[in-house]
Design brief:
Layout (H helix, E strand, L loop, with lengths): L5 E8 L5 H14 L10 E5 L5 E6 L2 E8 L2 E8 L7 H23 L2 E2 L3 E6 L9 H18 L6 E4 L8 E6 L9
Antiparallel strand pairs: 1-5, 1-6, 1-7, 2-3, 3-4, 4-5, 7-9, 8-9
């Protein structure tokens, strides 16, 4: 199954966490062409016209810092992926988000809270929001974060069961071995 539109989101944390504090960093990333590592094709950095976010838009993925429900968040959206299993696509998206999180922390002093991640799959054709698909992909999400990325088994909060909404899960209590105190 080839999934499209996989978004992974981690909250920003600390006093320096704001959309405005990330704008200069995104412009530098765009000039350095680092953003191309997030996307096989080129990427372009812009600040949203209303000032609500910072976007590095690429051919197969976008990196965004925006205001979420609980404050600023770092979001990576994998628009499309090569053939493979859903867990591989989720690992790819999470890997790119974690790489961006590390670079953002080193470049700006903004801290990314890695103890929580939201995974959203907005692909109603290949992953409709049904009980069967939701259960199967939840197992893929958990496998991606535990087996492949080495995070601890998380607490999982499922998203909407409305078939019109995208599939989503919030995983809390994550702690990777390399980040444990």
């Amino acid at each position: 199954m080839q999934l499209q539109r996989i978004s992974v989101v981690m909250p920003l944390d600390g006093p320096a966490a704001s959309v405005g504090s990330v704008a200069p960093v995104s412009r530098r990333w765009s000039r350095e062409r680092w953003s191309q590592r997030l996307s096989a094709k080129g990427a372009r950095g812009d600040r949203a016209a209303d000032g609500s976010g910072v976007v590095l838009a690429g051919f197969d993925g976008d990196l965004v810092v925006e205001e979420g429900d609980q404050g600023p968040v770092l979001r990576y959206t994998l628009k499309s992926a090569e053939d493979g299993e859903p867990a591989q696509h989720i690992v790819l998206a999470l890997g790119r988000l974690l790489e961006a999180a590390g670079r953002l922390e080193r470049s700006s002093g903004v801290r990314v809270d890695r103890s929580s991640v939201t995974v959203q799959i907005a692909d109603r054709l290949n992953a409709p929001n049904t009980d069967e698909v939701r259960q199967r992909l939840q197992a893929e999400v958990v496998s991606a974060v535990t087996s492949t990325l080495g995070f601890a088994t998380p607490d999982i909060i499922g998203g909407s069961v409305d078939p019109r909404d995208p599939l989503s899960w919030t995983l809390r209590g994550l702690a990777a071995p390399s980040m444990a105190a």
